[in-house]
Amino acid sequence: MRNSSYRKEGLHFATHKNTNRSPKNKMSQKLKKQVQRLIQKKYFDFNLSHLQEKLEVDEHVIVKRETLRTWAHEIHHVKRKKNRRTKVRRRRDRMSSEGLMLGLMLGLILGLILQRMAGMAGMAVTINSLEIKKAALLPK
Predict the structure, then answer these.
(1) What percentage of the chain has pLDDT greater than the value 70?
(2) Partner of 100 for a Cys bridge, out of 17, 23, 91, 95, CB 3.0 to 4.6 A?
(3) What is the C-alpha to C-alpha distance for residues 70 and 53, in angstroms, rounded to an integer?
(4) Which DSSP helix (H) or strand (E) runs through 133?
(5) Residue-range definition of the domain harbouring residue 112
């Protein structure tokens, strides 16, 4: 088959058959201009999803979301994403000895557990520089 096509068409047999054809789902320029005019004059304060619904209901124009977004960007209707500087992330300074961070975390976890247990028993727990003191809340 390829050989016979090559003999008939020459080197042009290798070009795709859809070359120089417009896509099947392409919207017309007339419709595009009409929608852009409606966006600027009538629906200037609508967001894209609301605009798409209004076009379908009121104007009987069905346009896909991404097509509508592209058309709105062309007339500068949609706000563009702001380029913000990223937050500078810094590493935390290392602890002076190897197990110090682990000891701090365990002390914190132990303190939270004791606070919860004391709260269930009607007592208050205060943590003061690695010492745990219990104070009874019950009247004397």
Answers:
(1) 81
(2) 95
(3) 16
(4) strand 131-136
(5) 101-136
Q: Which two tokens stand for residue 15?
A: 């070009």
Interaxial angle between packed helices 29-41 and 65-74, expressed in degrees from 0 to 180 and rounded to the nearest 10: 70
At 133, phi and psi to the nearest 5? -115, 140
| Cross-strand pairs, 123 | 136
* Cα-based angle 105, 123, 100 (whole degrees, multiple of 5): 15
Question: Residue 24: which residues within 8 A CB-CB, separation 6 or more?
Answer: none
pTM higher than the cut 0.85: no
Q: What total of structural domains would you count in the chain? A: 2
- Each residue's pLDDT tens digit, 80-97: 777 888 888 888 777 677
Quote the CA–CA distance of 23 and 21 in Å, as a whole number: 7
Token digits of residue 111: 């303190």
Q: Output the DSSP codes for 9-28.
A: HGGGGGS-TTTT---TTPPP
